[in-house]
Structures are given as structure tokens and as C-alpha cells.
Amino acid sequence: MHKLQFALILILISLSVKSEARELEKVIYGVDNRVDLYQTKNALYKKLAVSTAAMIGNSHLIDQGDSFLIEGKTLEVGDGICSDALFAKQIAVANCSGFLVANQYLVTAGHCIQTLSDCESSTWVFDYANYNEEKSTYLIPKSEVYKCTEITERALDSRTDNDFSLVKLDRPVSNRQPLEFRTKGKISNQAKLVVIGHPSGLPTKIADDANLRSNNNKYFFMANLDTFGGNSGSAVFDAKTGVVEGILVRGEQDYVSDITSSCLRPKICGMNECRGEDVTRITNLSKLKKIK
């Protein structure tokens, strides 16, 4: 093969990889609405957050007998985020987010759990959150830590962009309620939205005050949700009713370089600017009604 042809192929492959990675990123729209659980006064949001979980690699969980210590670097140290950026001093270890839909079933993004080896290498952790104050140490009882043992239903379709995983946990979850989710029809164009999950791998964050951008696609809708990598698999709720409308799966680029400070800052877009965030419709999961 000619050297020039080979070089062109390498460039095309590189652009393709960057494009695929970009689709899974997210961003801030307008004001950064992300808050810790102790910072919100909304009782509904706090209730919903109890049934959300973080997907954390096994290496970040240190066995302490009856509990696991979550060990990891802060956003500042591990990811080069500017020290004065929101949550830069908090540890960030979650790869994806998920939420409880039945007493032994959890939903996440299809690109988060693709094979059973993903279940084996990661753990689902509830209560990786700042309920009463911002913490620097997270000691989670083993009763709140689960493995997935089965991929009950999954989609990751490059043609339709359908993206979800329904997984079975290793045992029933008895101390928190499965979330209510839409079973038919489409979300209202006027709905206000809130997303709860683990942006950039951080402890649970709530981000509300979001609206729909587009509701036309069969498989997903678009919204101006304040989300980041790590939010993949997060439940997106109707902010008024608390009903799950979809699963956060893709979005705009997370961070931009601050050349002056030699660090990264969250990308900021106007409420109607940039590409928007893609949310898989929860009604795409055909097996949810059977397990509910």
C-alpha cells in the first residue's frame, strides 16, 4: 500500500474514533444546575436519588470487612480539572450511572454494560452520595453493593442510536423503591426535566431546570440537561411527577482547555445552543413490563 494512502487511512480511523467518543460526552447549558443531595430542598428529588446507583470498577472498592471504602482521585488530580471548578475537589470514580426499575433489576446505558465481562469487572453501588454534607471518604456497607449477573435486554444500535441495558442484580434490593417509569406514549413537549446520576464519576448529583429540544425521533429525545461522562445510564425524570422518561446516553463535549490556567473547565453553552443531550426513551425496553 502506498505510504500516502496508509496515512490517509490512519487519519480517517482517528477521526472516526474521536467522533464516537464525542457522542458519549455531555455539557452544561446555561447555569450549572448540578447540586449534591444535601444542597436540594426538593423532597421528590431526594427520594428519587435513593434508587440511583453508580457503576464503579472493582479496583476502586477496598474491602473493609462489612463495608467497602471507595478509593480514587479527585477531578482536579485525576482529570486535570481546574481547581476552582465546581466539584473539582471531590473524588470521581464512577464509570456510568444506573437506576432501579424492579427489586432485582437495574437500567443503564447499552454502552455501559455490553457483555457479562463488564458485569464481572464492575460493581453497582448505592449511596455513593453526599446526603448531609460534602465528604472526602465514602465507606459503603456491603448491603448496598451489588453485581449484575445477567443482561436481560440490551440495545446499542449505530443505525438508530438506540442505547440501553436492562440487567439483573445478584440479589433483590429490599431497602429502596424501584422507580416509576413511562410504559407507553411519549413525553410531553412542555415537560420540565431533571437528571440524577454521576457526572464525571462524581458522587450523586441532581441537575434540573432542563427542557426538551426535540421529541421527534422514535428512539430518543433531546434536551438541554447539564450532564457529563459518567452520567451515561442516568435516569431522566419528569421533574414534576418523578416518572422516568428516559436514559441519558450521549451529548456535547464535556470540557474545554483553559490555556491560561493549564487545566480543563466545563464547556458552557446557551440553553438553546450546542448539540443537546440524547435520552433513550424508556419505552424502548420491551421487557420492563414483564419484570415490573
Concise structural overview:
It is built from 5 helices and 21 strands. The chain has 292 residues and is of the alpha+beta class.
Any overview of this molecule?
It is built from five helices and 21 strands. The longest helix has 21 residues, at 3-23. The radius of gyration is 19 Å and the shape is globular. The chain has helices spanning 3-23, 43-49, 75-79, 116-121, 288-291; strands at 28-29, 34-35, 52-57, 61-63, 67-70, 94-102, 105-108, 122-126, 138-141, 145-146, 148-156, 163-169, 192-197, 205-214, 220-223, 235-238, 244-250, 255-258, 263-266, 268-269, 277-281. Strands 10-8-3-6-7-12-11 form a seven-stranded antiparallel beta sheet. Strands 13-14-15-21-17-16 form a six-stranded antiparallel barrel. It has a three-stranded antiparallel beta sheet with strand order 4-5-9, with no helix packed on it. A hairpin with a 5-residue loop joins strand 14 (205-214) and strand 15. Mean pLDDT is 91; it is low at 1-24. By secondary structure, it is of the alpha+beta class. 15% of the residues lie in helices and 35% in strands.
